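Contributing: when you submit paired examples, paste them exactly as shown. First protein:
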Amino acid sequence: MSDDGREHNGHERVPSRRRTRFPGISSRAYEHPADRSALVALRKLSGFDTVFKALSGLLPERSLRLLFLSDSVRVSDQQFAHLNDMLLDACYILDLEKVPPMYVNQDPQPNAMCVGLDEPVIVVTTGLVELLDEEEMRAVIGHEVGHALSGHAVYRTILLFLTSLAVRVAWIPLGSLAITAIVTALREWFRKSELSADRAGLLVGQDPQASMRGLMKIAGGNHLHEMNVDAFLRQAEEYEASGDLRDSVLKILNVLPRSHPFATVRAAELKKWSQSRDYQRILDGHYPRRTEDQDASVGDSFRESAAHYAHHVKTSKDPLMKLVNDLAGGAGDLGGRVRRGFEGFTSAPPGSGAKGEPPADDTRPPSDGTPSGDRG
């Protein structure tokens, strides 16, 4: 449980191992730069909370709560007590005073989510509970509590509503395009918020191997004796560096419809952060407090986000990111490099037809850009 076994919300338990607690920690301490800049800006908007509470009447939040209450199992000291222990522990470590209700839903697909406008609700599936061991599950619950502390549940609920709305107004061309654009932007932000919540899960569990192992099992199932975390992380390196510009484009197309980054990417990002100075400083007690949130600068947050993306482009091994970096650096023969990167899509064998005419025998490979679905 907690770092010293003290009572929290009337519940007391001897910890299996000592872990650090973070009194008054602000979610800014662990948020991904792109996530943090968006959240700081939203929190600065006058009347923002009032607007979203007004929208709550349009959103299916009340319906969701009734659905979970009627057709799922609410976690407590009498039901799924071990999950209740982990929930109380996660809230204690991240100093979240109001413990969100948590439900277990019958679903073989391993998944978890945190939704709600007025009060966040955490839901985990039976597939996830049966898949993960104690330390892996602790990181997942910490992940969801991190969503609650950041206020991500509000924006995820809006995303779910807009996604549903986009389907309903699909027959209106301009309306559908406008909502689709907003949903696409929200998904990009939400993928970054997932990286933030992964960091929160690590702060709760304080076991990097367990956090990365959980992501690996979400990707590959419960055959842990057949898998290896280091090999799984090498997949992420191969995914980033392999292929040419065609593969870079396909990566973008594959991830666009997803609300979560790919599991290998999440594991690699989490490992990088666990080895960073920022993570160690938090463990040492040096982190921003919630009492300072109102003084957070929007400009500083955006500059930090821009610096992060610039560093990512500069250090990335992805062919498209390398091209962008070379373009920024004024490298020569970029046109030739672009043509060579895409020549597999459109090039035809020399002399295969008259100028401006297609070759007699079209040997172009079939398109294979079907995006994969969300998982984990």
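Second protein:
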Amino acid sequence: MTTLDDSELVFDKDGVRLTVEDAVATVTLTNPAKRNAQSPALWRALTEAGRSLPGSVRVVVLRGEGKSFSAGLDRQAFTPEGFDGEPSFLDLARGSDADLDAVIAEYQEAFTWWRRSDLVSIAAVQGHAIGAGFQLALACDLRVVAEDVQFAMRETSLGLVPDLTGTHPLVSLVGYARALEICATGRFVHAEEAERIGLANLSVPAEELDAAVRDLSAALVAAPRDAVTETKALLQGVSGRSYEEQRAAERAAQARRLRDLAGLGD
């Protein structure tokens, strides 16, 4: 392992760097020259990052180097050549439905692990977060944004649909009607609106973004881990439960916590 300041470098490849400092891991997109445009290789690296987290990690911060968080899918994907060593999207479109479904499911894995109940993930977003970049920010539990942030879901404008797990969290955060309008128009959502409608937990000047994320990370790890994990699981399950079912889930979770605190857990 190599050290970066006080952080331990876990890996650095394909535009993704993973470092760990105590209970906080940082996943950084490292191709600012291309505004952190995304590719299948980057998605595989993000999936590996999730699998490589030490068990001590409680908070994961996702950030992008440079002026943009991520400007979305690298347009090279739509050329006949595609990426070196990868099938082009045009080639994928010629495959069977089952093959295409399997490939997209693999891509989606890069976006799913951020909501694991044993972690809290924070996207630190500045500049452009477009298309796949917007969906990657939505994959996280929380979003802290710089005042220059520009969210946009451009897939529909290109004749496609958002397919990297962004539709569920977007509707959960802003509601169906607002989500439809944002996706169908492809318009920009700026910092003030993002905070007002619930896309962002906090908006700060760009020079304060890193400090704000550090403060939030510290606050999240201050509470006992098991209590945070149980609370996150409770909140994640709300949409699939009735009011009475949620009451029962609260009782069961609290019983587990009380027994653990009393030293009576399994």
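If you have annotations for the second protein, write them as plain sentences, like these:
The chain has ten helices and eleven strands.
The chain has a mean pLDDT of 94.
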